[in-house]
Design a protein that fits this description.
Helix content is about 40%, strand content about 15%. It is an alpha/beta fold. Strands 1-3-2-6-8-7 form a six-stranded mixed beta sheet, sandwiched between helices. The chain starts with 13 loop residues before the first helix and ends in a 19-residue tail after the last helix.
Length: about 250
């Protein structure tokens, strides 16, 4: 029940509802110390983008770029996604909301060969953040959910298999959303096969735009891109996307 003089939340415009709900959720989690990762973080990576976006991206982990900049999908991976969205006539700030499944940076550990690599989050660390991410998904109410990395699919879709078994596959998520499991974009700019990997990645985004054009109009007709007249118009095939790792 609303307090005297206040409007019930359901009577407010959807954008304002989302802002109030996300603000309350962020305030509840803002100084999180529920696991040990809080001791090393520079920033807790909450999210970025439109709260009424039809596309939501969930990264499995927080990268060093994210931790330095305080935003998800920082660095060349984020540049690549923004570049592709623009080629498809989409606006990253208007049409996407991005967050991380695990919102703090994991420490590095020494491998057998002596190199230092950032470890994956533990089950308990993921379970802590999963609660917040599931609430974020409810608030954004996307019709397209893109899950980057093994753990995003494992914990949000319940699929324990190696990502290689189902990367690029779509499945339903709830009643009005489809989810794509995919490798994260940060590794696409490295290696001799980077051009072919980027072309394959671009094709996944073509599929995403096709689904957005069809399912998004049915499930999220209120999305601003449809009010602005966006329609799927596939660009010509491409090779190198013009984004490098450095």
């Amino acid at each position: 029940m609303a307090l005297s003089g206040q409007l019930p939340l359901v009577s407010l415009p959807p954008q304002m509802q989302a802002e109030l709900r996300m603000s309350g959720l962020a305030g509840h989690w803002g100084a999180c110390n529920r696991c040990g990762l809080c001791q090393r973080r520079r920033h807790m990576i909450w999210g970025a983008g439109s709260l009424r976006a039809p596309i939501m991206i969930v990264n499995s982990t927080t990268s060093g770029y994210d931790n330095q900049n305080g935003t998800p999908l920082a660095g060349p991976g984020g540049e690549l996604v923004a570049h592709i969205l623009t080629r498809l006539g989409l606006n990253p700030a208007r049409d996407c909301y991005v967050t991380n499944l695990v919102k703090c940076l994991c420490p590095k550990k020494s491998e057998e060969d002596g190199t230092l690599r950032r470890r994956l989050p533990t089950h308990d660390e993921v379970e802590v953040c999963k609660v917040a991410v599931e609430e974020q998904i409810k608030i954004i109410d996307p019709c397209i959910l893109i899950l980057y990395g093994q753990q995003a699919s494992r914990y949000l879709l319940g699929d324990p298999r190696p990502l290689a078994k189902f990367a690029g596959h779509w499945r339903t998520y709830g009643k009005r959303c489809v989810a794509l499991s995919a490798y994260g974009p940060n590794g696409l700019m490295m290696g001799d096969d980077s051009v072919s990997k980027q072309a394959t990645y671009f094709n996944l985004w073509l599929e995403t735009a096709e689904k957005l054009n069809l399912l998004g109009r049915m499930w999220r007709p209120d999305a601003q891109l449809f009010q602005d007249g966006w329609a799927f118009n596939p660009p010509a095939p491409i090779g190198q996307l013009g984004v490098s790792a450095c």
